[in-house]
């Protein structure tokens, strides 16, 4: 009788990167603060962008995530926009990089170009499958964990250029489950694979229930996933924004949230209710000791400011997240100051 050797399936419940015991609490100095913007898609959007960037710069976020999509000319648009950001602000760009943006060979060229314009961090995602197809196109990396591996390989091949530093690599996490997932265990399997291949942190996709973030954190820790999981926050301004969130996340809008807008007809009242909901959810998320907050701005400065004001009213100040950035030293000031007495006698 022959013996059958069965190799156990690698599962998030026992990943090979799991430590012998759960890590002690991180000695975090402060929570991370970040924002996400979209490269301008029209002349009108480009004209408004400097004002938004100046505002975000005053908040001193840890990084500014820059999306990549067909409507903004994919990675060319991302690279051009990031070059502008690094030239005019102290913001630290994090470039979105999607498997669907190009073949592996094309991605290698674009990653090199992005490094050249100042990028030192990437958000590695699979991206949306092209309409009418069930998988990514031939020649493309299949999943984000493979993209993380590619980025770490590039990092290793360019140690001298990076001054022996590391690239920051973020990935996506799904508190309410990925639309294509078979269930919570597969979601954790995928997140564990991303960690195993070198991901540093995760940013969540949109979700409606703050408790789902807590559940993800708890299950991830028990599965040996120790990278920070940062909640993504999209300000709600009206019922249409809720339906936009549903479309982007693949989740139905909870009836209880829609009911908050019952009988409301004027936009100002709907906006106030929506921002109150967002602030309540954000406060609840922070009670679960989130490692930071990541705000999806949709390039809407007024709404971003209004949400931060709503959070301030709940005692949540962004000034407690990150320190102010150091003053810019380039380009040098054109104002000539009189030397001090000490300098005169030096």
Cα Rg: 22 Å
CATH architecture: Alpha-Beta Barrel
Shape descriptor? globular
Total strand segments: 9
CATH fold title = TIM Barrel
Query: What's the multimeric state?
Result: single chain
Give your account of this protein's structure.
The protein has eleven helices and nine strands. It is α/β, with parallel strands linked by helices and 346 residues long. The longest helix has 21 residues, at 267-287. It has a single domain (32-327), classed as TIM Barrel, CATH 3.20.20.220. It is globular, with a radius of gyration of 22 Å. The protein has a nine-stranded parallel sheet with strand order 7-6-5-4-3-2-1-9-8, with helices on one face.
Write the layout of secondary structure elements.
Elements: E1 32-37, H1 43-59, E2 63-66, H2 74-88, E3 93-98, H3 104-116, E4 121-125, H4 144-157, E5 168-173, H5 184-196, E6 201-204, H6 210-222, E7 229-230, E8 232-233, H7 239-249, H8 255-259, H9 267-287, E9 292-296, H10 301-313, H11 341-344
Parallel strand pairs: 1-2, 1-9, 2-3, 3-4, 4-5, 5-6, 6-7, 8-9
Which key features would you list for this structure?
346 residues, alpha/beta, TIM Barrel, nine-stranded parallel beta sheet, 11 helices, 40% helix, globular, disordered N terminus
Summarize the structure.
With 346 residues, the chain is of the alpha/beta class.
